[in-house]
Every structure is written in structure tokens, then in C-alpha cells.
Amino acid sequence: MERVRIRRELMDYLLELARDFYPNEFAGFLRERDGVFEEVLIAPDPHFGRGSAFFNPWMLPHDESVKGTVHSHPGPNPRPSGADLSFFSKFGGVHLIIAYPFVEESVRAYGSDGRELPIEIVD
Ligand SMILES: [Zn+2]
Fold first, then answer.
1. Domain spanning 4-122: which superfamily?
2. How far is 114 from 46, CA to CA, in rounded Å?
3. Residue 31 CA to ligand 1 centre (angstroms)
4. What separation in Å is there between the alpha carbon of 111 and the centre of ligand 1?
5. pLDDT per position in the chain (123 positions), as tens?
6. Dist. CA 26 → ligand 1 center (Å)
């Protein structure tokens, strides 16, 4: 099964961002190097709607190292919304959702088809 590998420093930073933005959602793009996600680019103008942050396709960065997205859910439900799923399938790659209370255990990863993927933290 495909694994989502994330550098520990990035995971800590994403949790911090989710807490800082709370009660709003934050959204960003994830950059990968050698199979490990190492960096986040915070989306400049995500649509922070009720229950879902999503992205305009035209604002996707032209950056080949961007292989996924991340956004937070201000509630405890880490499941992707309908809007999330339709965005995932258009974007491809992998997608993190960080649910309240924004700890490592409340982070989930999904493939572009919406199935959950295991997360591996890399030191
Ligand atoms: Zn969502």
C-alpha cells in the first residue's frame, strides 16, 4: 500500500499552522523531495467555506515538486467533504486533512480517489 511520508519538522509545522488559523481553516500545497514531503506553500487565497477549504485550479503553483495538498478542519471530523473529494480527484497526488484538536493522531492522508493512506513520519 502506498504510504505518505512526511518529515517530522513539516508535520509539527502543519499542526502549528492549523492551531494558529483556528477557528478558520488553512490550506496549502505540499512539496516533495525524494519521496518525502518536506515543505508547505500556504495557499494565497483559498476559499474558506463552511466545512471545507478548497482551491481554485488556476491558482495551483507551477511547481513540479508540489505533489499534494493539506488543509485543516476546525471540527473533529477528518473525513473529506464532497467538495474535498472532487478537488482531490482533479488534483491527483495525496491530500492531508488535519482535524481538531490538531495533534498527530488527528491527521489523515487520502489518495486522489479518497481512500485513506497510511502516514509515515520521517525523522
Ligand atoms: Zn475539507
1. Cytidine Deaminase, domain 2 (3.40.140.10)
2. 20
3. 19
4. 14
5. 689 999 999 999 999 999 999 988 888 999 999 999 999 988 765 555 444 555 665 566 678 889 999 999 999 999 999 889 988 888 889 999 999 999 999 999 999 999 999 999 999
6. 10
